[in-house]
Amino acid sequence: MRAAVFEAPGSIVVVDRPDPVLVDPGDAVVRVTATCVCGSDLWYYRGQSPRAHGQTIGHELVGVVEEVGADVRTLRPGTTVVAPFRWNDGDCPHCRWGAPVACLRGGIWGQPGADGAQGEAVRVPFADATLVAVPDGAATPALVPSLLALSDVMGTGHHAAVAAGVRPGSTVVVVGDGAVGLCAVLAAHRLGAERVVACSRRPDRQALARRFGASDVVAGRGDDAVAEVLDLTGGVGADHVLECVGTAESMRTALAAVRPYGGVGYVGLPHGVELPVGTLFGRGLTVGGGIAPARRYLPELLADVLAGTIEPGLVFDHRVGLEQIADGYRAMDGRQAVKSLCLLG
Amino acid sequence: MRAAVFEAPGSIVVVDRPDPVLVDPGDAVVRVTATCVCGSDLWYYRGQSPRAHGQTIGHELVGVVEEVGADVRTLRPGTTVVAPFRWNDGDCPHCRWGAPVACLRGGIWGQPGADGAQGEAVRVPFADATLVAVPDGAATPALVPSLLALSDVMGTGHHAAVAAGVRPGSTVVVVGDGAVGLCAVLAAHRLGAERVVACSRRPDRQALARRFGASDVVAGRGDDAVAEVLDLTGGVGADHVLECVGTAESMRTALAAVRPYGGVGYVGLPHGVELPVGTLFGRGLTVGGGIAPARRYLPELLADVLAGTIEPGLVFDHRVGLEQIADGYRAMDGRQAVKSLCLLG
Predict the structure, then answer these.
(1) Are residues A299 and A236 part of one domain?
(2) Is B277's CB within 8 Å of A282's CB?
(3) Which member of A239, A277, A289 has the closest CB to residue B275?
(4) pLDDT above 90 covers what percent of chain A?
């Protein structure tokens, strides 16, 4: 099969790799029909995190089951599935507690020795527990981008909202206008937030944030953004702030824009971020987040995608084929694209 | 009237002070019938936090209304009341949102210019919003210690449990065996935790923790405590950890004893505490707490005290009169007492 691999910073190539085969009786082989490039893929692309020469890449996928092992009970060849960005056994204490992302036998597509999602097919461990089936005939071409968004970005934006404690009637600020931030706007709106303030200075992203349910847009950054939020909230601050960037400045903005005893959900992988305990304690803030338990959220979000009430696939604004996936990286690296979709077959 | 004041580190004296009078129409004057010494009072007693020579002290009290201003509607002379450790107007955005502790016009007994609770009487601003009435005849001598515990320690222990997300069936670890830690054990048990692990090496506190609902006691500290918790939980860690000390070591213990994607509630004022963002993000932890909104919790906790289902007053193990209140400080400073009760009149 053909699959993208990391060659060196700035260089993604598509090469021939062995077709995946069943190894364990709980495995499935899934033919990938759609994958995409994640903001986190840019870390190794930019040389900001290490990755081996020739390593597989990509961790978001929608596909069709091609083959299943002897122990697989809920899937059959031909079923369309969404895969979360990590596999999980569904049976360890963390899985059973609702944290499949911490599964003791879990892993992520593209880790050493595993297939990457940016390829024609993947071997899926613990297929019954990992994959979520899409009803026959439901995965129309128009719906595929939104299904694919459930692999990671929509679940991650939703996790920020859940971790921050968003509830019906909340006033929410979302820091970050990348794909995750935009999905966080959608998630907050979906959870019943009355007011959702998106932070963005780019007209196209402002427009999508509004389409996703933002009631207000703040164009400033840092202290300016905080001042605008305080102005919008009568000096009080937001009930909940969703930090979807991961920089020191974005976290400072989040901690200053939230009201006393409010909640901050953070899902941007922290780079240089500090959590000042004096501020947190003194203002009574709750801070939570981390890597999203995407598998846990998948069924409820899938139901809403199928019902047409959310359309997270709108975050994709660039399309490539597998052989041109390097273009998808370049467009996101150069900020010409929010998120690059890659359709196969 | 007679009231205790701070003279210098290690020196608490009882002096004559002016009787409080009504100043604003929402005020009440309350004659104090019971007060106590808080762990946080030891900071200035030990010279660890600054306090002016001659400043009033104490912030926990049960009393009887003596006089009310023209605007006071819900209280009348003779009513027994519990005061939370801060007063609040009940009407600002923070009060209305459930964070009266952040009231824009709030304050704490013993702050410069205010009466301290360790005295014969206090002026209470915003009396209707601040004070919680005890039904006539209910404040029996046997019940007074538990009513007094609602001023601060029980509400603070409860806040740790709420901030950590304790729910029915939870496995909870409480770090700290002071009055707040013991109340946190009681709070976790009250909220339906199935397993409550108290950390204490002192037999009398272990016994009280068990009476408050602890199912297990861990005697180790630091890494030893973590190892014991992991052993008790099959290597998983606790669903929720309540950090009721405020030291760097106690927070490290809390963050290591909690399971991935679990919650840490912390209510010990942090001294040298760090919140390592890499650990928090990587383990998906939620951390919340700070100064407890004691007023918000008072009605529900009072109902349980009156019903006899909780008895937080058991944390008091030393009794003094007002003129001997310095003894109450000494006993707590020397760790001979968990918490000193001071009965007046």
Answers:
(1) no
(2) no
(3) A277
(4) 99
Query: Does the distance separating the beta carbons of A278 and B290 come in below 8 Å?
Result: no
Residues sharing a CB contact under 8 Å with residue A16, sequence separation 6 or more, in sequence order: A1, A2
pLDDT in tens, B176-213: 999 999 999 999 999 999 999 999 999 999 999 999 99
The whole-number pLDDT of residue B345 equals 75
Domain with A70, as residue range(s), is: 2-152+293-343
The pTM score is: 0.96
Residues B123 and B77 in one domain: yes
Q: Does A290 contact chain B (CB < 8 Å)?
A: yes
pLDDT, tens digit, 9 for 90 and up, residues B130-140: 999 999 999 99
**In this model, does residue A345 exceed pLDDT 90?**
no
B291: chain A residues, CB-CB within 8 Å:
281-282, 284
Check whether residue B235 and residue B306 sit in a common domain: no
Q: Are residues A183 and A264 in the same domain?
A: yes
DSSP string computed for B75-124: --TT-EEEE-SEE--S-SHHHHTT-GGG-TT-EETTSTTS--SSBSEEEE
B198 and B243, same domain (yes or no)? yes
- Cβ of A297 under 8 Å from any chain B Cβ? no
Same domain for A45 and A132, yes or no, is yes
Q: How confident is the model at residue B63 (pLDDT cuts 50, 70, 90)?
A: very high
Q: Name the band, by pLDDT with cuts 50, 70 and 90, for residue B250.
A: very high
Last residue in a domain, options A250, A274, A289: A289
Nearest to A238 by CA among A178, A153, A291, A175: A175
pLDDT beyond 80 at B291: yes
Query: Which chain A residues have a beta carbon less than 8 Å from that of B269?
Result: 281
Does B252 lie in the same domain as B189? yes
CA distance B195 to B124: 40
Residues B142 and B164 in one domain: no
What does the pLDDT average to over B300-321? 98
Which of these three, B246, B265, B289, is where a domain ends?
A: B289
Looking at the 3D structure of chain B, how many domains does it have?
2
Q: Which residues of A96-131 are buried (b: 16+ CB within 10 A; e: fewer)?
A: ebebbbbbeebbebbeeebbbbbbbbbbbbbbbbbb
